[in-house]
Design brief:
Helix content: 40-55%
CATH architecture of the largest domain: 3-Layer(aba) Sandwich
Shape: globular
CATH topology of the largest domain: Aspartate Aminotransferase, domain 2
Bound molecules: 4'-deoxy-4'-aminopyridoxal-5'-phosphate
Length: about 400
């Protein structure tokens, strides 16, 4: 009965790792998936995560019972505080409904399903370009996906004019997906002044902001600075949604730990919103997993472990920034034609190199460099040892 089933395509991002794994070359480098690697090219488990896990293992009161549909209560409270700030009026007024979800993706999906059921406008505007999973997640959640201009290939920076025009032309009430910081794949974020203009436009048109926060702490190394975009929208008292992921900033990728928060106008509305989120979640996966959320809650609730985390997070962010400088310098040293200053201007995990799909294919074939065909490279996958090889590959790609 399944003989007619066609072979599905590989995921454009995760498929890069599949191809990488098949390549026997000793010089191969995987710059596809956005996963942090050490200078030695190894995955990193933060010391503070190991410590929290040890504390959990040694605590005999810890059991493996089901969590509530909404997840671990402590985790939810601490996650809201992390993104909105401890003194956020929305938190103090109990206007936030937070549910633990399956990392960032699950939070986006639950948020999308909730909106499709309970919000009057079904259209969501996503930036062009954006993380490749966004259109799929929201379409399958029941929303209609449209794009707004975001990136300008000519400047390799923000197309602010285009963004303002497109959001200005969106129907009143439309949902707008915003990357809270470290936009993926471009590494291009609005300035604080531009964020303020975006906020004014969104509020004046009654658009609904939905923030995707997958990189808090990774852009600048500061958790507060990277949450500013979200916080200016909370400060004006209006509604918004936020999907948080701990995949990158705590290195908890495979634990699938994240949170969806919906900021409402009143505590009363937040209670009803939460009750409806439960109805979305229960038939999808019943309740979320306990381990990752317990790690996060253990780290966030204790000042000492929290501080340790911020130091380790900053070290990851700093190593990525150092990779940017090393790659830029290596291209300069080779006299590679073109302006590569965007490598040091863009922020977060990725550089949107401007290399086209033919150049990428050439680099994969001749240099065993694996990256997505849109020219995005994960700076977190680079090390001082692999920078020269990548610079040689880029140089060859643009000069042959
Ligand atoms: N949003 C963006 C912009 C991302 O880059 C990612 C991870 N690549 C996610 C969401 C979700 O990741 P996860 O589900 O692993 O938390």
């Amino acid at each position: 009965v399944f003989a007619h089933v066609a072979q599905g395509p590989e995921d454009p991002i995760l498929g890069v790792t599949v191809a990488y794994n098949k390549d026997p070359s000793p010089v191969k480098v995987n710059l596809g998936v956005g996963a942090y690697r050490t200078e030695e090219g190894k995955p990193l488990v933060l010391n503070v995560v190991r410590k929290a896990e040890q504390m959990l293992v040694n605590d005999p009161s810890r059991v493996k019972e089901y969590l509530p549909i909404t997840g671990l209560a402590d985790f939810n409270k601490l996650s809201a505080k992390l993104i909105f700030g401890a003194d956020s009026p929305a938190i103090q007024e109990n206007r936030v409904a937070t549910v633990q979800c399956l990392s960032g993706t699950g939070s986006l999906r639950v948020g999308g399903e909730f909106l499709a059921r309970h919000y009057h406008e079904r259209t969501i505007y996503i930036p062009l370009p954006t993380w490749g999973n966004h259109p799929k997640v929201f379409t399958l959640a029941g929303l209609s996906v449209k794009t707004y201009r975001y990136y300008d290939p000519a400047t390799r920076g923000l197309n602010f004019q285009g963004l303002i025009e497109d959001l200005g032309a969106a129907p009143s009430g439309a949902i707008v997906l915003l990357h809270a910081c470290a936009h993926n794949p471009t590494g291009v974020d609005p300035t604080p002044e531009q964020w303020e203009q975006i906020r004014q436009l969104i509020r004046s048109k009654g658009l609904l902001p939905f923030f995707d926060s997958a990189y808090q702490g990774f852009a600048s190394g500061s958790l507060d600075a990277d949450a500013q975009s979200v916080r200016i929208f909370v400060a004006d008292g209006g509604e918004l949604l936020t999907a948080q992921s701990y995949a990158k900033n705590m290195g908890l990728y495979g634990e699938r730990v994240g949170a969806l928060s919906i900021v409402c106008r009143s505590a009363d509305v937040a209670v009803r919103v939460e009750s409806q989120l439960k109805l979305v979640i229960r038939p999808m996966y019943s309740n979320p997993p306990i381990h990752g959320a317990s790690i996060v809650a253990t780290i966030l609730k204790d000042r000492e472990t929290y501080n340790e985390w911020t130091i380790e997070l900053k070290a990851m962010a700093d190593r990525i920034i150092s990779m940017r400088h090393q790659l830029f310098d290596a291209l300069k040293a080779r006299g590679t034609p073109g302006d590569w200053s965007h490598i040091i201007k863009q922020i977060g995990m990725f550089t949107f190199t401007g290399l086209n799909s033919q150049q990428v294919a050439f680099m994969t074939k001749d240099f065993h460099i694996y990256m997505t065909s849109d020219g995005r490279i994960s700076m977190a996958g680079l090390s001082s040892k692999t920078v020269p090889h990548l610079a040689d590959a880029i140089h060859a790609a643009v000069t042959t």
